[in-house]
Each structure stands twice: as C-alpha cells, then as structure tokens.
Amino acid sequence: QQPVQSPQAVILREGEDAVINCSSSKALYSVHWYRQKHGEAPVFLMILLKGGEQKGHEKISASFNEKKQQSSLYLTASQLSYSGTYFCGTDHRGGAGGTSYGKLTFGQGTILTVHP
Amino acid sequence: KAGVTQTPRYLIKTRGQQVTLSCSPISGHRSVSWYQQTPGQGLQFLFEYFSETQRNKGNFPGRFSGRQFSNSRSEMNVSTLELGDSALYLCASSRTGQRGSETQYFGPGTRLLVL
C-alpha cells in the first residue's frame, strides 16, 4: 500500500515555508525524498533511516517519526527553484523479515509552486 | 561521474506491438530498478535486477519483462502493448539495492505513447 502524502498541493511566495508529510500504514525502514520537475527525472533529496536523526542541509530538512510511521519534509525560505512535485518513497523491509530489493513505494506526490 | 542514461527518450507505438527500453546505470552500480509513472497511478515499481538476476517484481502482468547484462545495463520489454501502457518509464540505479539506506538515482526516463 502506497504512503499518503499531504497536502496534495502547496502554493507559496518566495521566502515562505512549507511542510510536506508522508504517512504509511506499514512499518517503515527508511523514507526517501525526491523532487521532480516537469519532464525531468526525480532528483534525490535525502534519506531518513529507522533509528536515524533528522537530516537536512541549508533550507531543506526532514524528520522521521517511527512510532507514527511518518516523515515530514521541511522547506524554509522557499526559492523559485523549489517548485516541482515532491515524492516520498518508502522501504518496508524488516518486521516480518526478508528484504525488498530495490523497491521503493512512492506516494502520490505533492505539487509545490513558488511564486515571486 | 555520468548519471543514469535511458534510451530512447521518446517512443510512439501502436496497440499490439512490443517495445524494448534500455537503461545504463551509474558506473559501479549493479542494481537497476524499473518504475512506471502515470498521472493516475503515480510511480509504481516494476522489477529490480542485480547481477543479471531478477530479485524483486511488482504487480504487473507478464507482458512486462526485463533482463540485465553482465555490464549491469538493463532492458525492459513490453509485449502486446495496450493503450494503458502509455507512461513514463524510469529506471533507477543503486550500488547493491540491498539496503534501505542506499540512494536510488533516476534516469531521465523513456516516454512511451501507445496509439
């Protein structure tokens, strides 16, 4: 079952902040965040690992709440270049055991639009 | 380091035909995963290959198949094309695909249109 992202769309002015959430009904091993611009490949942003800390660099960071099976992506002081669709991809190995080679299950995406 | 490359970038086919898409992973990466992206279903996992072996498969019909060569390059094939197969097909590479901590790097995709 794919994770649920919220909100589905966000419109910002340059300099404003945004939070994108990703929730899973299954236990999470890791969460991967990507940004995709129209007509381009998804670009990796960061990975959050079970038992790991909040990650980030400069104005984009993310957190991982294992208990709630949720991850959140924080974009602060947004720039025009932040516009695009953000996807979370989840890895669910562990729990009952076994591996999930090379498979990420992606949410439906959050469309972020930043205006001048 | 060169990124993931995919060929061709665009394809137009008619129903009933078959198509082969190619993916060259980042040098040193041995795991290749394939995804289908459509507006309705989003990004969906097709299958993953490592050392010329399919290790994982998503919920797609048998018309979708793939293979991997000894140099880690991968191809996917769709036979008897249907209109619903129109999509962006993305491949992603990672070093081993075995750990959830590995990053998958995506190629630019092949946009397939079935008429």
Distance, first to last CA of chain A = 37 Å
Cα(first) to Cα(last) distance of chain B is 37 Å
What is the averaged pLDDT score of chain B? Answer: 94
**Sheet having the most strands of chain A:** 6 strands, mixed
Q: What is the mean pLDDT of chain A?
A: 88
Largest interface: A-B, 28 and 29 residues
Task: Tell me the total number of β-strands of chain B.
Answer: 11
User: What characteristic shape of chain A results from the CA principal axes?
Assistant: globular
Oligomeric description of these chains: heterodimer
Low-confidence stretches of chain A: none
Helical element count of chain A?
0
Note the beta-strand portion of chain B.
over 45%
Unreliable segments of 5+ consecutive residues of chain B = none
Question: What's the shape of chain B?
Answer: globular
- Report the order of strands and helices of chain A: EEEEEEEEEEE
**Secondary structure: helix percent of chain B:** under 10%
Helix and strand composition category of chain A: mainly beta
> Main beta sheet of chain B: strand number and arrangement?
7 strands, mixed
Number of strands of chain A: 11
Secondary-structure element order of chain B, N to C: EEEEEEEEEEE
Structural account:
- The complex is a heterodimer of chains A (116) and B (115).
- With 116 residues, chain A is mainly β.
- Chain A has no helices and eleven strands.
- In chain A, β6 and β7 form a beta hairpin.
- Chain B contains no helices and eleven strands.
- In chain B, β5 (42-50) and β6 form a beta hairpin.
- The interface between A and B is medium-sized, with 28 and 29 residues.
